[in-house]
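Co-fold these.
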Amino acid sequence: MLDAMEVPSHSRQLLLQLNSQRTKGFLCDVIIVVQNALFRAHKNILAASSVYLKSLVVHDNLINLDHEMVSPSIFRLILDFIYTGRLGDAEPTSEQLFGAVLAAASYLQIADLVSLCKKKLKRNGKYCHVRTAGYPGYGSLGRGLRATTPVIQSCFNSTPRPVDIPPGEPVNPINTHCGELYASVSQGNQLHQHGLCPPERHCSPLCGLDLSKKSPNRPSNQLHLDTTESREPSIPIRPDSPPVSASVLTNSSSYKDQNHSYPKLDNNSTPQAPHPEPFRNSVSNSHLRTESRDLMFDWMKPEPIGNYVDESDREKDLDREEKGESSPLSQQPRYPSIESNEPDDDKSTSEETGSSGDPSPSSNLERYHCNHLYDPETYGDNLYVCIPCGKGFPSSEQLNAHVEAHNEEELYHKDSMEPPMPFLDKTSQSLGDIIRPYRCSSCEKSYKDPATLRQHEKTHWLTRPYPCSICGKKFTQRGTMTRHMRSHLGLKPFACDACGMRFTRQYRLTEHMRIHSGEKPYECQVCGGKFAQQRNLISHMKMHTTGPDGKPKLDFSDSVYAMAKFTADHLGLKQEKAAEILSQTSHFLNDPKTIESLYPLAKFTAEQFGLTQEKAAEVLTQSQHLGGDSRIIERFSSP
DNA sequence: CTGGGGAGGGGGCCC
DNA sequence: GGGGCCCCCTCCCCA
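Predicted complex below.
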């Protein structure tokens, strides 16, 4: 039918339009996660191009590709091919590139691209006899092509660009022998037989950003890779860090265009392998990944990983350090300023790093283990390097912003980065101090354990450590960011069995189910009104506590409610629990300490409702639970 | 038109 | 990292 098109240019125009839409993100309905890079595309186009991709996009708006099988940069080329029918303008001699594309295209089952690569390789006479080639100059495609393989924000500039291989990259010995070159179906099955892939999806990703939570058919041991975080190495801010300074470095071997900069191609340079082969073994902490890697080495060499450390591995390694354990990574030469006693907490943000200029994980990650001195190959186009943390930036502005962030965080964490110590002032120890001994140095809040305290302390940071990869909004907790991402992607994993309505959170579903059950567990203590959702009770309570003039009004029940809330806030309890404790207090009034502990409640009540403390105490003790205990009134009358 | 309730959704944050 | 809860905003419906 298409052969008989009356307008011959129709298909071409259509494809041009679609590609234009893709580059703008217009109507894109799927995000493809490849290692740490995100790509947007149209499900229809992917499904029409690849049976494999079709099987993935049918289920999800977010799909993960195994980066062992296809690197971000290669996938970028493939995506360009899908939308343009062209394989970029790769140099005729870059048969190693075609080999990698061929392998990935085979994995993704894109027959046309497989044929094209074979053709190009045959034309170069390399197709069948390059088995052991350790292509000089051909290194990490992930790095070499990172300028052409931006993360999702940068995908909008996606016209096919020349593929340059940077000099001095570690060798990536792609095995392009005819028989072993690409992942045939049988090879995929081989992986299935080894239990590495779920049968529902061929070679399902071994790691990726799983935002769908309940997505069917997902391997249970799938790693949850925070794309943002893995793109951003941590910036540890330590009290003992050297003074922040920055140096501007230049690199005459790089050139830039308006938006991007590319490492200059230099095929003559000697490949570097910053770390010897044995280090490879320390790279993955996932036995799953390790096993699969071993398997896949039979037919395809992955991206060079000698200098690559997965961020999750790195975090775990540092976690082990926190616990005083040794680890393979910790035995490696360490980039000095990267050390941190809180690796998870000190992630930088894309804004401060200008990471769109350097989304490459390898370039970032290798800094953990590579030479501290500036090296063009190490920093690529990020020529502006922050000395304390070793981060590179594409512009001086971004570097300056980053340095400012250092200063701000140092200011904020000069004290809080001290190892949290339990609050153990015996002289003024209250019940709250015993229950929650870890007190925030920036505010009066206290916590049961140091991890929670650390988590809380992030809320005081000026720079939130977890930015959204899509909109850039920053969060203090990774989980919040992940949840937020779900809203971008329209992922609602929690479905109501009764009406089919879907929710982004389990808790919402629980709330919603009360509509069907008629359950209204939240009761107003003032009027007895019942509510299915607590928030609506709270909203309702405002009606009781706020008068027509907007000023607070007081009745007895309100004060009990306020006291319960106060108790809840200060003891970190649920309001329900606090009210329960409050109601039981009268049993313990023989203990002078208990009376003492009630003092803040009366003080709060007095302040909240404009009463004298004595009057507040009277209100308090008139509670049927407290029985008008004279000891309380006596205590509160004398502040 | 307004006030109040029901409910969806997002962010903060503690456990 | 995930679950759960709290708070807020918002929209819709209804009296």
